[in-house]
Structures are given as C-alpha cells and as structure tokens.
C-alpha cells in the first residue's frame, strides 16, 4: 500500500507529457498570438525552427543528464555557484508572481464577457485575488491530487484549441477569412510583427518546469527527453492551429486579449439556444485551463524556491514544507500574497482590464526571459566541464553544433528582451522605458539583497 501511494505521488512518462503540455500550452497565449495579426503564423514558424526546437534540445540534454531537484536553479547553481543559482530562482519566482495576476485578470475578464458584461474592474480584481489564494491552497495539496487536475486540463486544452481552430477555419472557408493569412501578406510588412516576437518566444518556454519535481519522476534519464520533445511538437502545432482559427474569424484589429475567447466563441457558435450553451461550456472549460496552467507553473516555481530556501540561499521561510507530503507551502503562501499585492498596486494605476493585463505581462515577461540566458550559458559551461559525463540525450552535431545552438538561443532571448523596450521603426517611449527599467532594477536589487542576506 505504501509503495502504491509512492507511485501515485510520482510522474510517469504519460504524466510528464501532460504536465509539460499543461505548463507550456497556454490557451491565453493563443489570444496573444492572434493579436500579432496575419503575421503570427509566419513568426511562429520562424520561432519554432530557430528557437523552440533548439531550446527544447538543450533543455532535454540538461534534464536527462542532470535530473537534480530544482531544474533551472540546479543547473545554474552547478555551473556558476550557489549565488547565481539563487539569483535565477528569484527571477524565475518573481516572474510567476507577476504573471499569475495577469492570467487571473484574463480569467475574470473572460468571465465578465461570457456571463457578467457589467462587471467592474475592481470586481474582476477581487475575483483574481480570490483565485490567487485558492492557488496557494491547491499547489500545497499532495501531488497525486494536483496531478489529476493537470491530467484533466491538458485534454481540455486540446478540445478547446481544436474546436476553435476547426470552427474558425470552417468559418473562413464559408464566409471568407477575416484576415489575409497568405505567405505573401506576411512577407509584405514583416516589421509590423517585430513587436510581438517576444510574445511568441515567451510561448515557447517552460519545458524545464517539470525538472523542479525531478525527485518524483520515474526513470528521468529515459523519460525526460522523450516527454519534452513530444510535448514541444504537440504544443507548436496547437499554437499555430488555434491562432489560425481565431484570425480566420476575427479581424486582427478587433482582437482584445482579455475578451477574445469569449468574442470568438460567441461569434462562431452563439445565436441559438444550443450554440449559446456550447459557448458557456467551452468558456467554463477555458477558465478551468487558465487556473490549471497556473498550478503547473506555481508547482515548479515554488519547488525551486523551496529548494533554495532549504539550501539557505534564500530566506528559510521559502523552504517551509508541509509535514506529510513535503509540498512547498511557505513559498506558495508568499507567492499568492505577492500576486494579490501586485493586483491591487497595478489595479490602482490601470483604467481597464486590458491595460492591467499588458502592464503585468510585459514587466513579468522581461524578468521571465532572463533566467533562460543563464540556462543556456550553464549548458555550455557544463558541457565543457563535464565532457566525459554520460549523456542519455545529446544535442546533435558535436561540440560546435552545441555552441552554435546555445548561442542562437541566447541571441534570440536578448533580442526579445530588447524588443520589449523598443521596436525598430516605432517612436521611443522614454516614460515606459524608465518605468520598466526602474522596476527591473528594484527587482534585481531586492533579489540580490535576499541572496546575500542568507550567506
């Protein structure tokens, strides 16, 4: 019986695929991709070839060769020392604390668009705050419970995206496409899509999240590479398919991130009693996937932060675990409290849910991309230092190929960060640059203070 409970509390091969897809396949990401307009499919294809595939191969090699608890934190720590590991964990965790509120604002905004059109901004913020603390409770539960939430959410994501994709394309074939999705249209003005490259790069990241629970993975050396590569391929297809579905039915200029799924569902299926019921069912499913995605991310982020707390590289309060199942309750409570505080602070400055979403997302995304630069640098360092170590999976092509692939990923990540500040051809917004720069500086300094205080 004890052995059965132990297995239930671990990730098998299929569990890993569902976890990885649940983490990186974000229904809300399709809304952001659709906001790129008719250039989205072109930029997705470019990003998949030149970033997503190389990044997945690097992550697979690191995960299979160094399946230590902590994931990206452990890799950076092993390559560059405990201080750098703590810095990366802080950035990783802070990004989640900024990103969770933006997703929950999308949750409440979609809830409003579906069922309560007169809902005020502060009512939406209140719902998002409630979800933050519900997330703390859920992510502190035993893994065999939260694992099932992810197992349910992943096929629901498939169903939602495939439904929107098929219905949207059918709408376009029947009534004419709302946007010109041809290759020639995408090539006509490539610069218009530059501003959204960071959004697409952002959507390609997260496969390493499963490594934060590596102690609970069955046969990690064998299962990690297969699960990551399969998850990445499935996710790439569904992102493109779902984006095409929305753009086939909704003009790009009418795409609003917070309400686009409600608008698309109503446009495709609404108007009849049966259709309205289908809209409601699909809408509730979509809301559930929003919450489930945050469970996957907080499980990984809190586990990494708890590891740093227990190693005394971050305050020990982050390392507090539940006694029975050793779940990171200390990090979970602090994360949810930070999320709620961010919602209140930014809510006071925002005029509507759309503005609040983009403010939270943009700042968090810049922070989110930084640890991946360190991850690829760690890959190069560990490849050189541990050249004789057995690697169950290797990036193909030898040492030169590995350096070129990691270098390409680092370059794309740096470009994506810079594009969050300024897009060539667009006027420079010094006020925005100053706000983001100050926020980044404060975040980095606070993390440095925590790391040094615990040395």
TrEMBL record:
The keyword Chloroplast does not apply. It is a multi-pass membrane protein. It is found in: Cell membrane. One of its GO terms (molecular function) is transmembrane transporter activity. Its main location: membrane. InterPro entries: AA/rel_permease1, APC_superfamily. The chain crosses the membrane at residues 12-30, 36-53, 90-115, 121-141, 148-173, 193-211, 227-250, 277-306, 327-350, 356-379, 400-424, 430-451. Keywords: Cell membrane, Membrane, Transmembrane, Transmembrane helix, Transport. GO terms for cellular component: plasma membrane. PANTHER family: AMINO ACID TRANSPORTER-RELATED (PTHR42770), GLUTAMATE_GAMMA-AMINOBUTYRATE ANTIPORTER-RELATED (PTHR42770:SF15). This is Amino acid permease.
